[in-house]
Design a protein that fits this description.
single chain; mainly alpha; 6 helices; 0% strand; elongated
């Protein structure tokens, strides 16, 4: 087993933690925003879990991207040719760019939650920023097409 396959498996499995924590954080945020309820410790915990899992996923992804993935290493050797190959371009540019934007939105949302003047503002920030990030994440996961990856990757 190589470092690449270990990190790729961890990255694949961690995606589920990101998606589960995203759903928890988003659902409770929308419920709170629409229902004018308190920003509770549980809601703060869901938001924190979402921020933390996306951050962990980003670090693992950066290790894959910059050091271990044969796909991105091939792209770095001839970026012009990589841009002409849709599969290589997806991994070298599109997946990484969308995920970086999504992680940035998660962190911006987290900051807005902390600075929220009241419970409604906290719910609104979580609902808006986390939902947009979630949409980007869902659009950037290789579900189908040329970039198909297994839904569950084992060691």
């Amino acid at each position: 087993m190589t470092a690449y396959s270990i990190f790729l498996t961890i990255h694949s499995l961690t995606r589920w933690a990101v998606l589960i924590t995203a759903v928890l954080a988003i659902v409770t945020a929308w419920q709170g925003w629409s229902g004018s309820v308190a920003w509770t410790t549980t809601k703060a915990r869901f938001a924190s879990w979402f921020v933390n899992t996306t951050s962990i996923q980003l670090v693992i992804g950066l290790i894959l991207y910059g050091a271990l993935s044969p796909i991105t290493l091939k792209a770095f050797s001839d970026f012009g040719a990589a841009m002409k190959d849709s599969a290589i371009r997806y991994w070298a540019v599109e997946h990484m760019t969308m995920m970086l934007i999504a992680v940035a939105l998660v962190h911006i949302g987290s900051g807005r939650i902390r600075k929220g003047a009241d419970d409604k503002a906290k719910h609104r920030a979580a609902a808006i920023f986390f939902t947009i990030a979630f949409v980007l994440i869902m659009a950037s996961i290789p579900w189908s097409g040329v970039n198909v990856r297994p839904l569950f990757r084992g060691f």
